[in-house]
Amino acid sequence: MGESLTILLKSHPHEFHRVVDFNPETDKLLLLDFTEKNAELSGDVLSDTEKFIEYINSSLKKTGALYGIGGYAENRTVYSRSKLFDNDHHFSGTPKGTEPRRLHLGMDIWGKPHTHVMAPLDGIVHSFAFNNHFGDYGVTIILSHRLAGTSFYTLYGHLSLDDIKNLQEGNLVKKGDVFAQFGIPVENGHWPPHLHFQIIADLQGWKGDYPGVCALSEKEKYLSNCPDPDLILQMNRFVGK
After folding, report:
1. Closest CA to 104 of 26, 1, 218
2. Tens-digit pLDDT profile for residues 82-98
3. I want to staple 137 with a disulfide (CB 3.0 to 4.6 A). Which of 129, 157, 170, 179 is the partner?
């Protein structure tokens, strides 16, 4: 199903509204690396949310970038900051005592708190939750969409508590509507402000949550169900320009 969704999204590149406000003529993007190759991300930085925020902010300021982006299918050492990603059978389906989850299934957009998040297509609120564990999504909203007769979902993690205060399942969200914003650490899972954006072909019964990180042994299964988010975001082509 994921492969057919990828083909569908590739064939409708002009259907999608931008998810965050970005003008490629004037705004810069910075590709951020959260793998073991990034020596600046020491355990000291990762374990301290304030230091992590300072790392993101200084990286953006140094390069004049509006957002830091990236991370799809990235094998990330950053998840060592939370036990949530260590052998958690509730998410991965594999028993405890096996490999941790490190492979990122979405794309991150790092920026200022309260940055507006817009719907790329007309959608319906499928579900939402406050996943309030250290390192988790924090406030999460999942929208369901239908494009050319095919249904799929988009997940938005690390949002603000205000975004779900009066929200109800089944609410209509129109293409281009501002329906959320980047949350602050106390409401976004204790991360620097950013959006985790993920495309999901089949939610497999999940509500208000879906794994955004998987074990490497499950890479093929999860990536086939979660196509490249940039098929909708269309931001990677502007990195470095």
Report:
1. 218
2. 555 565 544 445 555 56
3. 157
